[in-house]
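The passage that follows is intended for readers who have already worked through the single-chain material. We present the inputs for a multi-component assembly, then the predicted structure in tokenized form, and finally a short commentary. You are encouraged to pause after the input and sketch how you expect the pieces to fit together before reading on.
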Amino acid sequence: MKAAELNHPADDRLIDAYFAKGEADDGTAAVAATRRHLEACPSCARRYELISEPLERLRVQETGAADAVFTSERLNAQREHILHRLEAAEHPARVIPFPFASSGRHAGGGARIMRRWVAAAAAAGLLVGLGLGRLAAPVGPQAPRPSLVAANRALQTGPAIRPVAGSPDSTIGNSTGDEAFLLALDEAVNRRVSIAELRAIDDLTPHAATLDVR
Amino acid sequence: MSTASEGPQTNVTLAVQAADGASPAIGSRVQRSEESRLAADVKALAGAGSLPEARELFGDIVLRQQRRASRIAYHFLRNAADADEAVQDAFVKAFSHIDSYRDELPFEVWFTRILINGCLDRQKARRRRERWISSSLDADVAERDRVEAASSAPTPEDALLGRERYRKIVAAIDRLPERQRTVLLLCHHQGHSTREVSTMTGLNESTVRVHLHRAVRKLRGLLEECRESR
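Having made your guess, compare it with the prediction:
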């Protein structure tokens, strides 16, 4: 016996030897060496038996347990089921629509989609309308429209502010022009417009002074 | 050149294995070779549109493979009804995907892979169900199957003790991590080589061996106890 074969193989080598027993080429060289060792070493042969015998017994038990459940009758029935399923797969079942739902489900498929689009468009229009409405007419204190109208009219009808020739105003640039414009605006707003039909509306709407107080 | 010849070489090895020896495992390899031929014919017929003929030929494959498939599914699921369904599903799936079967691969290996994936999916579904719904019904069915199987053990003299020991070992196998359990069931219970299991599971062959060692080491205590008390 070679010196290497005198080294007792580890349990994993014995397990490898057990599971390689069915292989035609006797597994790897390591398995072959283990087998040679087992033939020459009674103690390792005993160890191998301790591993292989219960495993073999377990295999027989497990096979017997499965075969006891899957009897020949059961296997025949199983085969019938398989062939029936294969045949059924070739001819898939036709789906017959429920009578009441058939018209709505098939013919009305496009109409249902159209209704959804209309509903979505209506909802979108409503939202856009609300948004624009809020922008155009902000909620809360409103601008004194009649006063502005009156001011505009006053600007058009009232005496024009003309700088006196030679006065410093004539030489002032745009900034003083804006100031003058605002001054004229103030005067126009504060001046009572003597138009009877506008006065009633003016009384109903809030004035700038009132807004300032609030 | 060498890369191209690797695949066929593996098949040649398997074919040689199929033609060799007389052990049950090797006998099944001879059968597998015949099934591979049948599967190639089924594929050709289905491809040509002759589905009834293909189906009929596939029935022969079912006849040859269903016992082995049922054992595998039962060992995985430990429930006869679930195993039955898993086997049916696997055969139906194999037939409907026969066009993707590669002729050079043993049909048994290809089919076992489909079956194992189905069993693992069912196991996961069962665990989810057990997490939320009472598992008493499933447990009852499994227990009934188990007792039924154990009661029909070949040696009636050790009926009571043997049944208890067997139940312990089965419970221990069921508690193994998924990969260890899969490898053990295929290598040990079904007698497949680590190379075949590597192809079936997609794991590296050395990884298969490691899982196998770990599984056996975990079970050894129980197995020895079983042996001593015999």
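Commentary: The mean pLDDT of chain B is 77. Residues 82 and 226 of chain B are 29 Å apart (CA to CA). How closely did your sketch match?
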